[in-house]
Amino acid sequence: MEWEVLEFKIKNWLSAVKMAVKTLFYGERLLCDQVFSVSAAIRESCFTEISKEGALALFGFPENVAKCKKTPEKLFRILDLYEAVSGLWSEVESIFSFESTSAVRATAVNSLIKLGDTVRTMLMDFETAIQKDSSKTTVPGGGIHPLTRYVMNYISFLADYCGILSDIFADWPFTVPSALPESYFGSPDSEGSISSPISVRLAWLILVMLCKLDGKAAMYKDVPLSYLFLANNLQYVTQKVRQSNLKFLLGDDWLINHELKVKQYAENYEKIGWSKALGSLPENQTAEIPADRVNDHFKKFNSAFEEAYMKQISWVVPDPKLRDHIKISMARRIIPIYKEFYEAYGGVQMKKEMWGEPFIRFTPDDLGNY
Fold it and tell me: What residues does each domain of the chain span?
């Protein structure tokens, strides 16, 4: 059966199951109990005859869905089915308490088991799909990679099912395949550290994706651009965590650690991307510098600044907060050093430029406008 058709049937089932159990089957059981109160055997026989076949069909549907081809995008409908059946289990157990309706209870339990197995398989397949992602195309300007968007949207939705997932994985303890740094999960004694099994699973999935992004960053020929790519993508990750239930699952320590890492990536981009421009200015601004050396410093700075600017003009920082952070950080990194040199030697050179080649192309205020 095509997934679109099956999904339509699932939606219909989800909208009907609660009414079927809490109104129809419950009402039928109540009626049989009242009408045939003098005879337990007749009461049971009548209720079983009326309801058993329909109930078996109703609770057999999720089990049949669990047999469908397992792909990651189907997971959320499977979770919806599991949530519906588990949420009605106490009513099912009470309404179908007769021995002759034990098959209904067994069918509901089997559906939960099969759905749980399917969820676990799909999550493992999802992790495998992340690990096997082999796209070689770099994102223009170091922007957000499609893998980052897909994985984080997926995991954000998963976080909404944390209660159901905890139930499904209750008897399936998670062992991280490789040693993780303690800092990744936060200090064990900290209130903000990751502790629940589901939190660890989701944190692991994010880590698997981040490892793939490290490999994709290496595809950029410009090292500064690779760091900008990592900063952009990790910033997207932290924002998705902050804006979803992942914030409560992963905790404050996780967020703080990864937001610090974003700043480290941004700092590496700044240092490497603008090192040539900064390196063109004298280290000791107070030392006496010969006029020809002053000219040379201005020329080198002009060339290095324009080269870096023209190369990076097409690079992107989609997140406004990160963009502002980088702008402010860059201004603090470059402008004070250049301003000190400009104020010390710019006046003399400006006079010389009236009769020859201009050595000074930028004032400190000009740099702030780039």
Answer: 3-130, 136-264, 275-368
